[in-house]
Amino acid sequence: MDALLTGLSLAVTPENLLYAVVGVLLGTAVGVLPGIGPAMTVALLLPVTYNVEPSAALILFAGIYYGGMYGGSTTSILLNTPGESSSVITALEGNKMAKAGRAAQALATAAIGSFVAGTIGTVLLVALAPTVAEWVVVLGAPSYFALMVLALIAVTTVLGSSRLRGFVALTLGLTIGLVGTATGQPRLTFGNPLLADGIDIVVVAVAIFAVGEALWVAAHLRRRPLEIIPVGRPWMDREDWRRSWKPWLRGTAFGFPFGALPAGGAEMPTFLSYVTERRLAGKHRAEFGKGAIEGVAGPEAANNASAAGTLVPLLAIGLPTTATAAVILAAMQGYGLQPGPQLFEAEPELVWTLLASLFVANTLLLVINLPLAPLWARLLRTPRPYLYAGILFFAVLGAYSVNFQWFDVALLVLFGVLGFAMRRFGLPVLPLIVGVILGPRLEEQLGQALQLSRGDVSALWSEPVAVVVYVVVAALLLWPLVLRLIPGRQAPERLADEVDELEEEVRR
Amino acid sequence: MGGVTDRWARGGRGTALLAVVLVAVLALAGCGVTRGDDGGENRRLRMMIPNAPGGGYDQTGRAATRVMETADLTGRFEVSNVTGASGTVAMQRLVNERGAQDLLMTMGLGVVGATYTNGSDARVSGATPIAQLVEEQEGLLVPAASPFETVDDLVAAWLADPGAVRIGGGSSPGGPDHLFPMQLAAAVGVDPTQVNYISYDGGGPLTTALLGSKIDVGTSGLAEFEGQIADGSLRVLAVSGEERLAAVDAPTLVESGIDLVFTNWRGVLAPPGIPDEVRDAHIALLEQMHATDAWQEALETNGWVDAFVTGDEFEQFLVEQDERVATTLDELGLP
């Protein structure tokens, strides 16, 4: 604790505070821009490390990382244009809230949720990092495969009112995920080397969400009366707080461990958090798909907590689990610092300054972003032709900046048309995005597990964690059957489905 | 009508605010990224990097351009990352810019392999070689508790049952971490097609697999593993270069009785079809860069081994590498 206070006193020196502010602002900006992520920004700023103190550089990078995790939510909510793959889920409910005049509440619950999750995550990091042993490397490909199966099964329960349409969308997503040469053999690349690395998830998400919607609105602009987005109140009320705090905590509980696991990542916990909140929403369940605040609070907390989790293996055993962490590791090595247990003994001041600066960065994010929420929300008052022109500009800029290639813009247009068609035929968007993100990872882990066991399928349940996860999967699948055996429970479930279906009919 | 204008005006303030915030933040970003001025010779060159920011080529290319800029050897460099298919996309672009006198590209052994595994026609031998800059030895890494104490133990187990030794590397097929175990297998009499090679997405996941004993042996450059080697959680059976590494207490393969020298390397190419005097100017520029203290410092901080070779000698080396990679991948039946 003393060490942390010392670190805190070092982190709030004017110079370090300035680096934290710059980092947080930069991070927010790159989070907002689709296509440019924190990893790329930190990498581009690596040369800065030649000129500044190690602690200042690490504070800057940590600020960018946390800021980036938060910033992606702003455009997801306001413009339906996710800036990062980890904020794709936020767009689902967040943008619906914004259209119902609750943009300020969505932005606020995202900001406060990120703060809560980031703070709890950092506390856990402080508590665990110095003592955590090699437990994070115990999990192998079989466990990760099981976890991904769990995520996939969990989201199929939210396929929407029509199972068939849900599976069509999931299949489309898995097919898009097949593109590339990840297995050593080209698949669906049509001989084009630009497709060899697969299709960037940000391009797909931005196209399906933003471009698809812009086309949809354009197609209906003259036929439908102008919908005016209600102004709404600027702040969260008592009810919003009451509905948000539990999702924040549950999101943190999902995000932190997944961040700490080498192949966990920030996307899976956002899926799981969303699905969990939907299941636990009770009387608000009908609001899901139409702007439920729980669906923003949970996933946003999850992605920030995972950022804190990522730093556990990085500091504890020098193990980078995300692209951003890998670049931060490169920066540390550039200073001749080798993360690991010995770092806490050799450079305690530096480590604790970094940990303390995470608290500072988190607080700064809240202080900077919360007052901005009502201001951002007014952006939606722009007349629709201008608003959607802006969204399209933003989407194209984002797709282009992924690789600085026109080819990605062509893909954006192609998937934008797909997004339009999906709206036309009532296909849900979430299963497609989940397919694109999880499909390739699922395959990679399966391939690795089987390669390690030389094709022995029993290796898939050779790890205890994998077995536990499969038990959970089985429970998930069997639970509805059990429920049916209990009289009286099935009626509301069915009714809700029917209401969903009716409403969808009306919408079309 | 008035209502619409009014709404637009209020919306406009929000938009203006957004614009101001974005511009301010991007300007800050600009300060960090584009340092330096147009001093020195006013020659402006472009440096193409065939992978994402933060990768090996990126670090080498950016370190080199930075040294050239700050030493005023040339004007400002425009550095761009052209990612795709492990460098094949960038290689294609280099060849397409035939005759461009202001373009350079950082590349290395991985790009040579990728052009084959991706079936590209844009081979490195078709470009104009400028200089090789650095090289990096590969190491054979094992977890602390591994039964393998020496390379001989590994070879014995490998010969007994080639598929049972799980070898992981941080590069996809065709990359250095994949080519090395394949050439090693061929050198000790193991059929390369029987080698059980598992490709990991870079050093991080590979470290995880090694520390968790998910694989038996890891093949990789050793810079990323310094910490684990120092604290004893990973051991090095052998290094692949001609001489031992100062930082790592492990024999070379040749010392261990295996006739194989393998190094990963990085260098600089120019597009095909440039005039000889432009090629010579590029070579002279890199020679000047190589002579600076700043470059020697960059080599040291990054753990790169100086391997400066220019012009015809580099061209000869490239042709050899191209053939050797082609043979290795051919034996494996990779395209």
Automatic annotation (TrEMBL), chain A:
Annotated ranges, domain DUF112: 17-433
InterPro entries: DUF112_TM (IPR002823)
Superkingdom per UniProt: Bacteria
Keywords per UniProt: Membrane, Transmembrane, Transmembrane helix
Transmembrane segments: 17-36, 56-79, 106-129, 135-155, 167-186, 198-219, 311-331, 351-373, 385-403, 459-482
Protein name from the UniProt record: Tripartite tricarboxylate transporter permease
Source species: Cellulomonas avistercoris
From TrEMBL, chain B:
Source organism superkingdom: Bacteria
InterPro entries noted in UniProt: BUG, Bug_dom1
Signal sequence annotation: none
Protein family membership: Belongs to the UPF0065 (bug) family.
Name by which UniProt lists this protein: Tripartite tricarboxylate transporter substrate binding protein
Native organism: Cellulomonas avistercoris
